[in-house]
Amino acid sequence: MDFKDFNFNPDLLEGLLAMGFRNATPIQQEAIPLILAKKDLIACAQTGTGKTGAYLLPVMNMISQTENRHNNTLILAPTRELAQQIDLQVEALSYFTNISSLTVYGGGDGIAYEQQKRSMREGVDIIIATPGRLISHLSSGLLKLDQLQHLVLDEADRMLDMGFYDDIMRIVSFLPEKRQTVLFSATMPPKIRKLAGTLLKDPEQISIAISKPAAGINQQAYLVHDTQKVKLLTELMKNVDFPSILIFASTKEKVKNLGKVFRGLGFKAEAFHSDLGQKEREAILSEFKNKRVPVLIGTDVLSRGIDVEGISLVINFDVPHDPEDYIHRIGRTARAATTGTAITLVNDKDKRKFANIEKLIDKTIDRMPLPEHLGEAPVETAATPSSGTERKHKKAPQRKFWKKKPKTGGTASGAEGATTRAENTAPKREGSAPQAE
What we know:
- There is one protein chain.
- The chain is about 35% helix and about 15% strand.
- The chain is of the alpha/beta class.
- It has two domains: about 5-210, P-loop containing nucleotide triphosphate hydrolases (Rossmann fold, 3-Layer(aba) Sandwich); about 215-400, 3-Layer(aba) Sandwich (Rossmann fold), CATH 3.40.50.
- Strands 3-4-2-5-6-1-7 form a seven-stranded parallel sheet, with helices on both faces.
- Strand 3 (about 100-105), helix 5 (about 110-120) and strand 4 form a beta-alpha-beta unit.
- Helix 3 crosses helix 4 (about 80-95) and helix 6 (about 130-140) runs parallel beside helix 8.
- It is globular.
- The two termini are about 20 Å apart.
């Protein structure tokens, strides 16, 4: 479906076309007409399907046709990184319009806080906020949302996972009852349906490719002992040509240690974690987006908050505890119909968690052979998911990323499954696209 068919405001459409976008994604095709019709909506779509554009475009179109635009729309996001990404997309999409936006999140300096206060007093079209900092402004009486028309909850499942339920309900108490509420979630557990039942009125429902990785992701797994992980990862990264690599680890401490290890081995890598200051985190993300830092290491918070095109390889140093987090991790590659590779390192204690992931995505992931010089891999028994259903695992030695080193030394180069980068870019802006989270 062509974006022209939505009859958007000409200035908004001009921005879309200037960015090189012509056709809506499936979630956009279904969600945009419903939001334009001012329906409440609960939408479930996997990462990378264009769900941010699915709510931004119709909301911005309605704002452009509204006379009273004082604090018109509130978008709640679980992390500052996601809030910043959404704001970047608002700025890109509003390039030819006069729509204004403001991000509200913790961790800024005094200057940023004063800028927030001034913008709140004057009023903006769209406020993008994390729950905690927004509550402090609402409680102080500085921010008034009594004229709000649209409430959007993005990554609602992650907000609940992070314990924001009470904060969300308190924020809603400051809002007018007559409003449009839109809830986007990558998953749809019972707690999300309960929240939707509380906040939404007669909502429409959309579900697009729930809990399935994008088809363009080449998923692989290595069975390893913990002592083999760093050695394997080092070899994989040395012997293949991936311009942009994202590594996920289970804890902040492990992220820090991996950053030190890989920098010590000569890799240009950065560790992204909550102990960094806001400016440091923003600088690291900017360097990664612009391909000046090829390797970024982080926890699952990063899987929801990063919006970077052209990530060619995602590595799970640890198997995520929640199978849904696996979807979000590997969803950072193969976005917007491109291709990419996702590799997971599975030790003995993580076998059951990995089996549960395979059960969720209804796919047996290829087991790759460990290079002989790294020693023997753990023996894989009939791994079973928590349901007890036996699964057969297949190996794919013909698709390995390493080659056995000759006795004279040297390393292998090249790799199969090269990544096609997304070419869409915003006019005069970096890293923005209406289809990305």
